[in-house]
Amino acid sequence: MDTLRNRLALVVWPMLLAGLMLGMWLTPWQGWVEPLERWLADHTRIGWLVYLALYVVVVALPLPAAAMSVVGGLAFGWWGIPLALLGSLLGALGPWWATRRFLRDPVMARLGGPRVRAADAMVRDDALVFVTLLRLTPILPFTVQNYLLGLTSVRLIPFAIATIAGLAPSTVALVWIGELGSLTFTGATAGQILSLVAGLGVFAAFLAWAIWRAIARLRSAGFHA
């Protein structure tokens, strides 16, 4: 069962990227991509703030945050990468802090036996590696990860750094799809589009390899979720 689950986790991102690319082609974006880009050009700071606020809400709730990264590429181009990463981090901090503040102590008092505390100490001491690998893999939904990590003693700075590092590859791929859609509907040449598609294919292969390695590292550390 674990092997089947890990194989399914391994193909989640490639399947998601393929599905999002198909969705970009089938969705009638033409009517509002150019007006959106013109509005953002005239209201840059407001547009960034609105996007970040929406991203925080989507991440904090069980909503498809991946779509927000695609929208970031569609609306802001490659600037969608830092914006999406910042939105992801800000959205993750709220659930993590709330769980840490109000639930960790009661849960540890009830369930925190020697083995649980030893595992918690291991995660805390190796937080950068563990959280980065967890963020990279689709073993658990991102929103669920934030609440579960709040139950651990992972500190703020490692949590933030590892969240950015672990989300960066998938965020790049998703924003890439949005940028591809934007160019498609604003008159890019066939050569430009093909080069972006080819580059995205290579990056997707790298992402699949990175996920496979991350899953293997987590399993070797005893994490079998």
What features would you highlight for this structure?
11 helices; 84% helix; 225 residues; 0% strand; mainly alpha
Description:
The protein is flat, with a radius of gyration of 19 Å. The protein is built from eleven helices and no strands. It has one domain (2-220). The protein is mostly helical and 225 residues long. It has helices spanning 2-26, 30-42, 44-60, 65-76, 80-102, 104-111, 114-125, 127-136, 142-150, 156-185, 190-220.
Look at the helices and sheets and give the structural class.
mainly alpha
The domain tally reads: 1
In helices, the fraction of residues equals over 70%
Largest sheet: none
Q: Overall pLDDT, averaged?
A: 77
Number of strands: 0
Gyration radius, rounded: 19 Å
Gap from first CA to last CA: 11 Å
Give the structure's gist in a few sentences.
The protein has helices at 2-26, 30-42, 44-60, 65-76, 80-102, 104-111, 114-125, 127-136, 142-150, 156-185, 190-220. It has 225 residues and is an all-alpha fold. The protein has one domain.
Blueprint of the fold:
Elements: H1 2-26, H2 30-42, H3 44-60, H4 65-76, H5 80-102, H6 104-111, H7 114-125, H8 127-136, H9 142-150, H10 156-185, H11 190-220
Helix pairs in contact: 1-10, 1-11, 2-3, 3-5, 4-5, 4-10, 5-9, 5-10, 7-8, 8-10, 8-11, 10-11
